[in-house]
Write a structure and sequence with these properties.
By secondary structure, this protein is mainly alpha-helical. 75% of the residues lie in helices and 0% in strands. The protein is built from ten helices and no strands. Helix 5 packs parallel to helix 8 (142-159) and helix 5 runs antiparallel to helix 9 (169-184). It is elongated, with a radius of gyration of 21 Å.
């Protein structure tokens, strides 16, 4: 019931707007009376809070649990991107709603949402910085790289359709993870003179930045 409630509410909010949707509308959408709805939620604000808890906060918790996993930076980045992408694929309408309604969140929920987003970004930055330090990844700005990778995962909510005939969330998550790793992975320096020169230039830029 909670899943149906959140999905129907997210659809109505997206269609009519948060302010234009009433609890009566939500009750009718799931086929119960408004008094019965109060057995599950007390207000629209509470619904938004449930969305925050079930999306960004849960994603942040899952990534924190992955921190304990060992492996190369590439392996850890792959697991993290897959985790985020699969969560977006599971509830794209909810992510779209939350993205549109951030400014409507009550202060407490907005703070929780922002804190979870910062935790997700920090997790990705940490993996990328570690990869750079190990020589697995290009010497690059980890914040820019992390924002780009997280953004590509979040954007899935705007074009992925779970009911499409060819919808395959596992394959999609695998591809996004592979693209994320390739975007930061250091190529084999000996693959060609050009690749070796590009690697040396990147290392020099990295050294100059940090020595300053």
């Amino acid at each position: 019931m909670e899943n149906e409630l959140l999905d129907r509410a997210a659809g109505l909010f997206a269609e009519r707007g948060y302010e234009g949707t009433t609890l009566q509308d939500i009750a009718e959408a799931i086929g119960i009376t408004r008094p019965s709805l109060y057995n599950y939620i007390k207000s629209k604000d509470e619904l938004l809070g449930m969305l925050v808890s079930g999306l960004t906060e849960t994603a942040a918790v899952e990534l924190a649990e992955l921190e304990a996993d060992e492996g190369s930076a590439a392996d850890r980045l792959t697991r993290s991107v897959r985790s985020v992408a699969l969560r977006v694929c599971e509830h794209p309408a909810r992510f779209r709603l939350l993205d549109r309604s951030e400014h409507l969140l009550p202060a407490t929920f907005r703070d929780r949402h922002e804190s979870a987003k910062r935790a997700i970004l920090a997790h990705m930055r940490g993996i990328i910085a570690d990869g750079v330090a190990r020589g697995e990844f290009w010497p690059l700005d980890e914040r820019t790289a992390a924002l780009s990778i997280v953004g590509s995962c979040n954007w899935v909510a705007w074009w992925y359709r779970p009911d499409a005939p060819d919808a395959d969330p596992q394959a999609l998550a695998d591809q996004l993870a592979e693209m994320a790793v390739r975007s930061v992975a250091r190529p084999e320096a000996r693959s060609s003179p050009e690749a070796a020169l590009a690697t040396i230039r990147a290392d020099l830029t990295y050294l100059e930045k940090h020595l300053r």
